[in-house]
């Protein structure tokens, strides 16, 4: 039998909400210490419910809940404020982040680094930062937390082909790799330094994260990615 849980105040974000029975909402949330959870917000759809204006996506919240089993009951929801809603293409990037977490992060699998990376990405999108670096930073941090991180070569030189089951494989001088994800030594150095000013680095890392995500999803496509393809490509 599942142990009954009571949490009083936990930093969280709402990833998705849908109607639940007549007056409630079923929430998927990402939390700092407890990972992704399903919570039912009882009465949240009633006219005049204070929860309606609080349980918004891309807003830092403090949540409380209680109960046992797969779906817990929301007992507290407070706005932790200060972040405007991302606009335009940044908003679609936020939907992409949410879908990525919903599809790849199992419920009740805590990863503080995922929450912190998500929080940083949402704030960067809201602040109007360049979209591509924001997405790549989050993807790399998220995938590393799930066990899809890169094993860095001891010395960096030349070019490397990425293979999902082998990692980075050095290419011989003059060797071609058509259709493969190839990273230059400069791209790897940029990643280590957190430098995103070089267009070639952004392009190569984008190809890398796409390959990793496709591998993790086992060929399934993200709906938000189709929208981003139209908006950003």
Provide the fold topology.
Elements: E1 5-20, E2 24-31, E3 35-41, E4 61-67, E5 71-79, H1 89-104, H2 112-126, H3 131-145, E6 159-163, E7 167-170, E8 181-184, H4 185-193, H5 199-217, H6 223-232
Helix pairs in contact: 1-2, 1-3, 1-6, 2-3, 3-5, 4-5
Please provide a brief summary of the model:
The chain has 233 residues and is of the alpha+beta class.
Structure description:
By secondary structure, this protein is α+β, with helices and mostly antiparallel strands. It has 6 helices and 8 strands. Helix 1 runs antiparallel to helix 2. The chain is elongated, with a radius of gyration of 20 Å. The N and C termini lie far apart (50 Å). The mean pLDDT is 89.
Q: What keywords describe this structure?
A:
single chain; 233 residues; alpha+beta; five-stranded mixed beta barrel; three-stranded antiparallel β-sheet; 6 helices
As a percent range, the share of helical residues equals: 25-40%
Regarding quaternary structure, what we see is: single chain
The fraction of residues assigned to DSSP E strands is 25-35%
Computed Rg: 20 Å
Report the biggest beta sheet as strand number plus sense, adding barrel if it closes. 5 strands, mixed, barrel
Number of strands: 8
Write the H/E string, N to C.
EEEEEHHHEEEHHH
